[in-house]
């Protein structure tokens, strides 16, 4: 099983809109109130919020288990460096403080050119800080009690993927992933001439990663892929434990099967849907790749104009015909890209990814069924919505297991600070 990987948040992700299709399930609009409220008062920690000076265009915030106790901690990289607040069984966050004077604005890091992430690089159960800086990749390893060691520069990581090597946020994607299914975290970049990667090395190695190499001459800027037009994701479509590339391009879905050596096969157009030619747009139509039927293979979930479309992954690396499984979470039901965030992830530990939507009156959930379709959504929480003052450009919302019970809670970086609500774990 691959190690944990977390991308620290810059701004709230949003979604919405595409062409209508055949009906499947009755709708629940973004404004609709349902009787399924299971509200619990959020635990609010007075830090990492707007009132404390945190800004989405300047600072990054997210969650990860930095001290290795099984609880998600809050990690904020602010002006002075890395701040932490530790999670616990009661959803209370404790011990916030500046633990490392690095990776922050004062040290020259900026939200656009310098992505920062969390991942357990050395396999000790604690999440380390990984930053894409000017000269390459920088790493600060987490130690006992949630301490962070002085960052190691490219000489001890990899001399690539930085600003000095030509990587730009408006052209290229950079992320961390276990490409080969060997339990080691790799650096992956969609660059000018294709996909580059640096394989993770075992703990105790002289360098955290091997030298980077080009793994596939496709999905790059020179092949016509644009971040503002196309979506590219890594996911295990075939169920073999190795990550494949899924690209939502001009003509539709292009997939390249991953190999055990970390390279990829020649891409193929596997589905003439979910692409630019079919009307899907990055700024309006979120597309996710997640396992919604618990068969071990990633499926496509697309939020179109009329609702949610699903295409199931197959063992040969292709996808089945798309079908509209839910007339909800689309523009026709009032969901807007500048207001409402939608996510796809497993909420209840059954191996099937659910839909979570932060709508107008609160938070909605649609659970995945055994057949891979989604049930009618219910408003499970009357908080974290537009009507409660949450704004994508000002506040961040995500899901993380703060209490350590194996199920996620809602974590919101709001006006007064950080709010944590246990409703997801308590309602199942």
From TrEMBL:
InterPro entries per UniProt: FG-GAP, Integrin_alpha_N
The name this protein goes by in its record: VCBS repeat-containing protein
Pfam families: FG-GAP_3
Keywords for the protein's UniProt record, in alphabetical order: Signal
Signal peptide: 1-19
Gene3D superfamilies in the cross-refs: Integrin alpha, N-terminal
């Amino acid at each position: 099983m691959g190690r944990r990987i977390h991308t620290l948040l810059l701004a709230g992700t949003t979604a919405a809109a595409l062409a209508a299709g055949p009906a499947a399930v009755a709708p629940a609009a973004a404004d609709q109130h349902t009787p399924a409220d299971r509200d619990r008062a959020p635990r609010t920690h007075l830090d990492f919020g707007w009132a404390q000076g945190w800004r989405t265009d300047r600072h990054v915030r997210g969650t990860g288990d930095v001290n290795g106790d099984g609880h998600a901690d809050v990690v904020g990289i602010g002006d002075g460096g890395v701040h932490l607040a530790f999670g616990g069984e009661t959803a209370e966050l404790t011990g916030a403080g500046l633990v490392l004077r690095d990776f922050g604005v004062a040290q020259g890091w900026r939200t656009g050119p310098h992505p920062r992430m969390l991942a357990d690089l050395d396999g000790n159960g604690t999440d380390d800080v990984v930053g894409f800086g000017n000269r390459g990749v920088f790493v600060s390893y987490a130690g006992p009690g949630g301490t962070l060691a002085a960052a190691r520069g490219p000489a001890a990581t990899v001399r690539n993927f930085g600003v000095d090597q030509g990587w730009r946020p408006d052209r290229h994607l950079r992320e961390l992933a276990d490409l080969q299914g060997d339990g080691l975290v790799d650096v992956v970049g969609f660059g000018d001439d294709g996909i580059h990667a640096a394989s993770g090395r075992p703990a105790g190695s002289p360098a955290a990663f091997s030298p980077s190499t080009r793994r596939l001459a496709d999905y790059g800027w020179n092949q016509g892929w644009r971040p503002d037009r196309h979506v590219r994701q890594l996911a295990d479509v075939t169920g073999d434990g190795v990550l494949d590339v899924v690209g939502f391009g001009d003509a539709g879905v292009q997939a390249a099967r991953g190999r055990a050596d970390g390279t990829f096969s020649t891409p193929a157009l596997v589905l003439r849907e979910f692409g630019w030619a079919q009307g899907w747009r990055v700024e309006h139509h979120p597309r996710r790749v997640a396992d919604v039927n618990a068969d071990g293979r990633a499926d496509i979930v697309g939020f179109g104009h009329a609702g949610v479309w699903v295409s199931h992954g197959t063992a040969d690396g292709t996808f089945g015909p798309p079908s509209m499984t839910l007339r909800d979470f689309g523009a026709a039901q009032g969901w807007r890209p500048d207001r409402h965030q939608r996510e796809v992830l497993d909420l209840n530990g059954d191996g099937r990814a659910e839909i979570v939507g932060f709508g107008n009156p609160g938070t909605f959930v649609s659970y995945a069924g055994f057949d891979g379709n989604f049930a009618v959504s219910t408003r499970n929480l009357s908080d974290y919505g537009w009507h409660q003052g949450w704004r994508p450009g000002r506040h961040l919302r995500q899901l993380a297991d703060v209490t350590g019970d194996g199920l996620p809670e809602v974590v919101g970086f709001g006006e007064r600070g950080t709010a944590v609500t246990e409703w997801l774990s308590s309602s199942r």
